Amino acid sequence: MQFWFTEEQSKGLRISVQVERVVEKRRTPYQEAVVSETSDFGRMLTLDDVIQTTERDEFAYHEMICHVPMCSHPNPDRVLVVGGGDGGAVREVLKHPVQAVDLVEIDEAVISLSKEHLPSISSGLADPRVRVIIGDGIEFVAGSRDAYDVIIVDSTDPVGPAQGLFERGFFERVRRALREGGLFAAQTGSPFYSAELVARVYRDLRSVFPKAGLYLGCVPTYPGGLWVFSIGSVGGEFTSPLPGRVVKGTKYYDEAVHSAAFVLPPFVRRLIDGDR
Ligand code: SAM
Q1: Which option is the CATH number for 3-54: 2.30.140.10, 2.40.128.280, 1.10.8.80, 3.60.21.10?
Q2: Quick one: which of 101, 178, 218, 229 has the fewest CB in 10 Å?
């Protein structure tokens, strides 16, 4: 008998992934976390029945959320990842010669499940440069001043504990937590299904950061496949990598993809045009 996991990705849109077996399911204080073995996408992590990552397509998402800000900074020594308990963003950040990476994840179970069942994604969490903090990223950022060169928000969608990570007040605290020349990047949903969110985040970033923008990546298991990343800078430009900053060992990201990701189709450009 075939078993299919189905996520309602939007009103009237569902995606189904064929599952061979459930590897582990945990009810945590925050969510239901499940790791499944799928027939075509390797292992998959879902939280409250929303796909977070799969072994087959995670590289596209993690490379784009990390290398665009990392390659736009001349010397990103200190990096903060908020959320991202699967470890994929940390793994990508560690491809750069960083001094320290802090990961603040609210749900310890996501980290332990990923360490146990998703080793190709979570491998970087064991690196001695990485400090894992279990706690609320909103509070952690509020308590940080001039501390980081790059801050990456790799969070769940804006519901429950992640809601505040998409608000203007949080972006103001992110700006204060960044050192001179710092950059901020976050996943901000689908331009098809979360158009209002994309537009609002851009407006808020524009009012908080001297420079703000958005760029696109393709993540097949996310709603619509086309995904928006929002970026803010207190320093330089970010629409192409700085010379010598592109790292080896990537499968989606490279110098040309970095620049191309900022070329927006008209329907996406229209979401933010009025604010430019
Ligand atoms: N790449 C994924 C996506 O776009 O669907 C996100 C992956 S990662 C697993 C998201 C993590 O953010 C979850 O493990 C969740 O527990 C964490 N999270 C949500 N709200 C948070 C908060 N306020 N502080 C820290 N972590 C948070």
Answers
A1: 2.30.140.10
A2: 218
